[in-house]
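1st attempt posting a full record on here, be nice pls
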Amino acid sequence: MGKTFLWKTLSAVIRSQGHIVLNVVSSGITSFYLPGGRTTHLRFVIPINVDESSTCQIKPWTNLFELIMKAKLII
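the predicted structure (as tokens):
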């Protein structure tokens, strides 16, 4: 069983129950294979050039914050 098949199956089952699933990957190419897939940098507003002081730029009570809080699964 492949990783993509497993991710798609888990996503489909949980979404069929009315829940939110966020599919995130490290590669832009890979994101095309997953329903609603995004790169981790894009989804979580992580800077491309990361150093010891880098943080995600997710502001409290924004749409992204609410989406993450409502997600049943983040793969």
